Each structure stands twice: as C-alpha cells, then as structure tokens.
Amino acid sequence: MLDFTPAGTARRQAYGNVVVGLAMLCICVLASSVRLFSVIKYESVIHEFDPYFNYRVSRFLTEKGFYETWDFFDSFTWYPLGRVVGGTMYPGAAWVGWHPPPPPPPSPPQVCVFTAPLFSAFCALSTYLFMKEVRGQGAGLASAAIIAVVPSYISRSVAGSYDLEAVAIFALVFVFYLYVKTLNTGSLKWATALFFGYLYMVASWGGYSFIANLLPIHCLACIVFQRVSARLYIAYAPWVILGALAAANIPVIGFNAVLMSEHMASFFVFGLLHAALAIQYIQQMLPPRAYSAAKKLVLTFGTTALAVVMALVVSYVAASPTFGWTGRSLSLLDPTYASKYIPIIASVSEHQPPSWSSYFTDLHISSLLAPAGLLLCFRPLTDASLFLLLYGVTAVYFSGVMVRLMLVLAPAACCLAGLALSEVTSYLATSLAAAQLDGDSAQKQGKKAEDGAGGQVADFGLRSTADKGGKKGAKHAKKSASADSGWISDTWRPLPKDVAIVGLILVFAGTSLFYKHSVYVAGEMYSAPSIVLQSRRADGGIKVFDDFREAYAWLSYNTDPDAKVASWWDYGYQTTAMANRTVIVDNNTWNNTHIATVGRAMSSPERKAWQIFRSLDVEYVFVVFGGFIGYPSDDINKFLWMVRIGGGVFPEIKEPNYLGSDGNYRVDDQAGKALLDSTMWKLSYYRFADCGPMFGAPRGYDRVRNTVIGKTDFELKYFEEVFTSEHWMMRIYRVLDKPNRDTKLRNPRRTKVTKKARSKRRGASGALS
Amino acid sequence: MRRSALCLGLLLLVAIGGSQAAGDAEVQRLLALQRSHGGVIELDPKTFQELLVGKSRPYSVIIVADAKDLRSQGKLKLGQLVSEFRLVAKSFAATHAGKGSVGSVIFARLEFSKAKDLFGRMGIQALPYLARIPPSLAISEGGAVTLGKEEVMPTTGYPWSAEAIAEWVLERSGVAVGEIKRPTLISTRLMPLLSLAVLACVAFVGYHLYYASFMRHQWLYALGAIAVYWFSVSGGMFNIIRGVPLVGFDHRKRQSMLFMPGQGQLGAEGFIMGSLYTTVGLAVAALIILAPKVKDPNTQRVAAYGIILVAFMAFRLVTSNHLWKTGMNTDWYLF
Q: At which of B173, B205, B228 does a domain end?
C-alpha cells in the first residue's frame, strides 16, 4: 500500500522527479543517437547544399572573428557582382559552428557535423519544458519522447546537416516555452529571457516571421475572449518592442522589422492590447451607467470618424489615375500564389504542396493523435493551451501549402499528440489502478477504503489539477449516478480493468510502431548526404558513388585559383566550399536575372551560350548527368526549370520549343528541336553513345529517362571536355577561347545507314522470321 | 478579238458580283444563326450542311470540339476551353461589328452527343481539339473532312487562353480578333462604394457576432480547429494548387478510380485519408472525454471497446493504405 501522509507524498514527488529526469536523459540520448546513422552508414561529412555555405561562414568566423563576419563580402560567388554575405545571411547556425582550433582543410570540423544532433536533444528538452508549462509533466514527457524521433524533424537534422533549420527548430520551441512561461508567471525575469531567446531565433532563421505573427494572433484571441491580464501584458508588450529592436539588429532584416507588412500585425495588436486594458480600467473606474454612456459615445464618434476617413481614402484611390483592382493585388492574399506562379520558388521541390501520404511519412502517429490534442486543449482552456491550439491550427494550415513548412508543424503536432498520449495513458493507467485498489479494499475491509478511494485514485495520475475535481472514484460516482438522467453523467469514473488493459496494449503497440517507423526512416531515407551516394550490389555489398567530391577535387587541383566556374545554381555553395572556385550563381537566389542568364545560356545553342559564358569570364562549365548510372536528379531533369526561369526574364526562350510534339518533355527522337540544340543537351550527352551500351540496351540508352536519346553523334565547337567523373555524374568542360575547327571532321565510329542498307537489313530480318 | 475579251471580262464581273451577292446573303443568314446560338453556332448535321458543305465558302470556320461526358475530367478543362472560345467569338463580333470583315470568320462548337458522326467524319481522335476549316476546302455531303496538320491547333501550351486562341486565329486566317474583353464581376467604378459597403457589413456583423451568445461556445471553435486540421492533412491545398479532380479515370480498366497509385493524389482519395486520420484522433478524444462519463459500467465497457475498435480499424486502414501508396516497408532493425 502507498503512504499518503504529506511526507510520503513529498517523497514520491521527489522519486517522480528523479524518474522524469532519467527519462529525459534517455530521450535526449535517443534524440541525438538516432541522427547518427548518416555518420555510421556513410562518413562524417557535411550534407546537401546549404550547409556548405554555413560551413564556409563558420570557417570565416573562426579565422577572421565576429566583427569581420558582420562585414563579410564574398567575391567568390555571383561573379561579377559578389555577395554581401554579412548583410544577407542568418548567422545563428554559423555562430554555433565557431571552432577554436582551425582544422586541417580536408576534413570538415566535427562541430559542424554534430551540431544538428546536439540541438535535437536541446529541442526535446525545450519541448518538455513547453508542454510542462501548458499541461504538466506527463504531457511534457510524452511530447519530448515523440519529438525526439519525429521523422519530419530528423529529415533536417541528421548529423552533417549543418543547416539553419537544425538549430532554428530548437530556438522556435524554446521561444514558445519562454513566452508561455512568462504568460504563466507574469515575471519580468522571464520576459527578459524571452527577448534573448527571440534574438537568437531571429538570428537563426527566416521562419521567425511565423513567431512574429503567431504571438499577435494569440494575444488577439486573448483580447477577443476577454482573457486580458497583466501577465499577458508582461509577456506580449515587451516582446513587441524589444523583439523589433532585436530583429532590426540582424543585418539581413534591418529596417524591415518595422517596414514589412509581415511585422505589422504585432504592432497593431500592441495598440489593441493597450486599448483593451484601458477599457478594462475605465470600466472598473466608472459606475455601470456612465460606462455604457461613454461606450455609446465613443462608438458613435469612432464610427463616424472611421467612415469619414474611409470615404476620403476611397475617393482618393478612386481619383488616382492608376486605380485598378487587378488580380495581382488580390493574389497577395493567396498563400498559394508563390508556389503556383513564381518559377524560382516553384522549382524547389520542398516548396510543393504535400499530399496526404507526406503527413503520415513525416509525422506518423502524431498526425493521427493531433486532433485529439486539439480537443484536449479546450479541457480546460487556459492561456497556454490556447497558444498551443493556435500554434497547431496555423502550422497545419501552412504546412498544406508547402512541404517545407511541415518542419514548423512537427513540434506542434508532437506537442498535441503528446498531450493526447499522456491523457489517454493516464486515464487507462488510473482505471487500472482504481480497479486494483477496488480489489484490495474489497478483500480487506469494505467501508474504510471506500472513502479514501477517490483521493487515492486522483493521486495516481499525472492529470492536471483542473481535471482532478472530476475524479471522485468509482464508489462516489455510483452514489451520485442515480441523480443524473440519461446514460451520461457529470462524474468521472474509471474504465473496467479489461478495457484498460486492452487500451494500454494498443497504446504501447502504436507507440512502438511509431518508433519503428521513425528509426527506419532515419536510417534509410534521411541519412543520405546527397554528396555521396550508395547503392546495393546484387551480392549484398555496397557501391559508393563519390563523383561529386571527385569532380570538386579535380577543379581545386587542376584549375587556376582565379578561374570562374558556371553551373546551375544548385551546386554553387558546394563549388565554392569544396572546390574553392568562384561561381556565377549559387543557392542564395537573391538575383533572379543572374540566374536567368545562366538558365538562358544552358538553354541556348552552343554559340550563344559560348558568348554568354565568355561575357561572364567563365572558364569552366560543369553539368550533372545521371543517364549513365540512373541518377534521377540530374540537370536534364531540372532543365525545364532552367528554361522557365530563363524565359521569365528573356522572352526569346519559349518553353513549348523544348517540348516534344505531344506537349511532353522527352529526350528521345520526338524531343523538341530547341532541346536537341541546347547547350545543356550537348554537354550532358556529349560522347554518351560511345561509352558502350549496358546489358543488351541499345546504343545511347539513357537509364534515367529509360529511352534512347534523340541525337547521339555530335561534336562540340565552343567547349572542350576536360573531365568526366568515374560514373559520368559530373562532366566538366572548358569554355574555349576560339571556336573549335575540327567539328566538321567525320566521326570515325559513325556508320551512316543508307536507304539501300536499311532495306537489305529489313529483308534479312524478314527472311529470318 | 478585243471585244470578245471585254465581253468575257464583263460576264465574269457580273458572275462574280452575282455570286458575291448570293454569298453575302448566305453569310448574313449564318451570322443571324450565330447570334441566335449565342455567338457560337452549335453544329449538328443540319447546321453542318448549311455552314460547311460545298466546294468553297467565303469564310473560315473555327471549330472547337466538346464532349459533355468529359466535362467532369478536371485535367481536360473542357468547360474552361469552351468559355474561352466563346469569349474569342464575342470579342471578334464586337471588334468587327458593322464592318465587312464580320462574316470572314465563323465560330462553331461540335458536341459529341449531338454529332457523333461528325466526329468520325472529321477524324477527331482526342480532345482538346480546335481547328480551322479553310474557305477553299471542298466538303461533300457525307464525305470525310480531311484537314491539314497546320489547320489543327497544336496542343502545346494547353490550356489555351482566349488570347492564345485569338493569336492562332490571326495566324491561320489573317483576321485579327481584336482585344479580348473579359467580363469583370463588377464595374470598376462601383468597386470603392461596394468595398465600403462590404466593410461596413463586416464591421456590423463582426460587432454582433462578438456579442452573440453562441460565439461563446467552445465546441464551435473545437469544430473549426478540427475542420482546418482535416482539410490540411487531406492535402486540400494540394488539390487546389495542382487542380486535381476528385475522381480519376483508369484508362486500362475503363472505370473511375478513387485511389491512384504512385505519387500525388486524387481529391477524393485525400479527403478519405484525411477523414481516417481525424477519425483516429477523434476516437482517442472520445475515449478520454466521453467514456469516463458513461453511467452504467456495462454500457461503458461496450462504448469503450467500440471506440477502441474504431480507432484501431482506422489506424489499420491508414497504415495499410500508406504502405500501398509509398511502398515503405519498415524494418525493426533488431535481428
């Protein structure tokens, strides 16, 4: 039996805290270690594209120091424009990667590789703290256990993924925790902490604008539902002013913090909050009749003044010559506009809208439990749970527009699911315990135990204080039940033992499936560094494709340090970081015209491309080609986006010319003429047909498009092949000073099929059949 | 000699003049017909006879093919095509009204259920189909109409806007359609007044809603939150942005399909799966919120088992469908 004296309760509380601490430690270790698959399966490298930029900034920071980084002008990118890196980046991740002893150049510093797993553990901790503030320890533990392995977050935070999001999601949740903590305590100490947390968030990620709009929405909801209090004021008002100052101090935001429309909501609600508090104060001060008279007066005057102002504005707008209500201005209100019509945004795969299966892949059980969490936020509705509710609803709405925003939804879904999971487990476990107690007390002495049962049951669970009033225990419930009508009563009663056991087993099974799914996804789907590829051979061994690094190393050892290298923008960061050469465009897509110029060169015929590249001082051009080994995300598959982005600025490039006669993008003999003539085609397929067919495949068979290419034998006149990597994934060409004069020479391998020979061949095959 | 040549010339002139007069009357009749059909002549065997059959005509005919049964296929966008086509016809009529060129191009629509044999005679295999019948093409009664490849609008760049159609018409027939005037919902002059009125209405309704008692019920907001959640996880935005139809059509099996394999989704598929997601959540919420309040222990047991069963089945359906969709067979990594 349990000891219910105050001392006993305190001791159990202490034990409970120790258990929670140990559980959190395990969760943090789990959160970090599940992200190490990439290091174990591949090696300790930095992944993808953007992390290479952060790595470069970190290196610069380490070498030159903090203030130099603020003024970092990078002449290695966007040649000949250069890029003001200090003023156009979010430095939060780079700060973390500051590493005291400069490492030897070939290996990236381990601190950059392991930043993401470390911050995932921090994120689990801050999720626990956040949910503890919202609903209590149980919900906190469950949420932390879910967010530790939620696949959506893993996708951006495996070891080596030294990305903005890797640190920013932690910062996001931590800011929410600080806000809710301030809201619950009303202490200025926490408001100050909120400022510093927000400062780090603003420095880390452009997604801070989500916070900058969510907090005003929460405050507005509090005003509308008459929940305004001094605590809300202390949490919200200092954040608006100091937060704007914090944002203005980050160069990339600067004065946008007060000029851009996405920050306007916070100032508007700031004013509204003051008005609401003033009204509250006046209402307390004046007698009721005077108050209603004053209200009427203010309303009448306010409406009249507003009407006059509106009439003036409208007449001014109507009188202006440029008056017009175009679809464009309305489309600003449409969140789907960018992902539909702006090619440079629509071309990025993570800006696509997700289908239903993405939610289950990325969130698994938390996407199923989240609706329950949404409902549980109303029982009881506190300021903190209202915040969680609003966070969940807005995040899930925006995640529907872009897959990328699934990352913002992930913490919300985990918190909501954690809330539901903890409540359902608590209810089932409490029922089981109540049944146990019932059995015990029946065996001993009936009457004495009956009175205690209610209190004992209530002490068992981790349920919130508000719900405890409802827990009266089985016996008490029975007594009052007769007073109620219908089959629903107001009293809380535990489930029968068998149901509770079945329920607990199912909860356990569901959570296990979630863990199985997440660990598997972490291991198989999200660990590939994308700079090194693997495939399984038939004998079970692993084949490694290291073509990217091979080509970057070739560039860095065999070209002039001042050489300019052109490629599609995806590879810009990697080229500057790994090959240490100047690039024309990179993944920071700040200048659309410059990108369109490269797109135009790639989609133009050789001569024109040569002129463009020469005008940009380009010496080397490389393309990524997957047709040889079947690597699908190569430049030929990205080519239509080059055409679209190029055509958006240079109207002479027309997409229909690059499509086949049936209107589809194809590379076989039905391909569009402009595609066959384009430089991208020539650089990708140059000498491809001669490299020898695969098992029985015809000559010039492309393994990605699964077809024989439309044009096999051609010579290059303005470019010269200088390097092709082992698996043909990277092909580097030199831009010639003068056009090649050998192109008219006949290809010695080519056998021209004459009409006569063809008919002869046909006859032969006919004879065989 | 000279006189006879003059006579011949005169005769020719008279003949041409006569035929021109007859042609004019014919064109006027057709234009009246076009007006009575609302701008675009609906082709059936009778109007086809009147409009097209003959050795030559003094006008080009632009024909759009349409099929009532295929209107529901979202990707084809036939409804949009026909409305854009009508817009072109209307703009043409407005630009050339009162001029001699008004009858030089006639617009017509060919609907499958009304004129099946005409589809066959024109050799229309697939939609969308938009073609010009040149004036010089001889069309016999009941014979096939063979058009050159260049007289059929290429399907690249589909869906065609009215502007694209107009450009093509100009390119083929040499007659400009003129500026396309899209009907605006409300005239721009009224817009400020209207917006003011709308704003006032919104303010009025908002004020009254704020003080309405039913707005204080939490279930209203709970319902809203669940609805937003359901819409988003269903991929509702995916449906809107990609413009996918609710139900697809399987050409191999020749039947409609609710679920499509591979990437992407169909509208109904998304909503079904979104509902299953939400069902699991709602069942769990019911177990926590409703089950403890059931009075009778036996009813409570049955209700709780029922809720658990619903949650379990929905979960099973979600996992099995997800496996079918993505082929993601996960592994325990234990053995």
A: B173
| CB-CB neighbors (< 8 A) of A401 in chain B | 237, 241
Domain identity same for B37 and B160: yes
Residue A337 pLDDT more than 70?
no
Same-domain pairing of B228 and B310: yes
Alpha carbon distances (Å) from A705 to A115, A536, A695, A700: 38, 21, 16, 11
How many domains is chain B partitioned into structurally?
2
pLDDT at A424 over 80: yes
Kindly report whether the peptide bond that precedes residue B45 is cis, defined as omega within 30 degrees of 0: no
State the pTM of this model.
0.79
Residues from chain B that touch A324, judged by Cβ atoms under 8 A, are: 188
Whether B26 and B150 map to the same domain: the answer is: yes
Reply yes or no on whether the pLDDT at B1 is more than 70.
no
B59 with B164, same domain: the answer is: yes
Q: Rounded to an integer, what distance in angstroms lies between the CA atom of residue B121 and that of residue B139?
A: 10
Q: Inter-chain contact B232–A396, Cβ cutoff 8 Å? A: yes
Residue where a domain terminates, one of B142, B158, B173? B173
Contacts of B15 (CB under 8 A, 6+ apart): none
- Spatial CA neighbour of A578 closest among A601, A547, A599: A547
Q: Is the pLDDT of residue B13 over 60?
A: no
Cα distance between residue A700 and residue A688, in whole Å: 6
Among B residues 209-268, those touching chain A with beta carbons less than 8 Å apart: 210, 218, 221-222, 225-226, 228-238, 240-242, 263-265
Q: Which domains does chain A have, with CATH numbers?
A: 546-560+591-748 (3.40.50)
For residues B27 and B166, membership in a common domain is answered with yes
Sign for the pseudo-dihedral over CA of A37, A41, A45, A47: negative
Of A368, A378, A396, the CB nearest to B222: A378
Q: Which domain holds residue B140?
A: 21-173
ipTM of this model?
A: 0.83
pLDDT, averaged across chain A: 84
pLDDT tens column, A574-612: 999 889 999 999 988 788 899 999 999 999 999 999 999
- B318 in any annotated domain: yes
- B155 lies in the same domain as B32: yes
A419 — contact with chain B (CB < 8 Å)? no
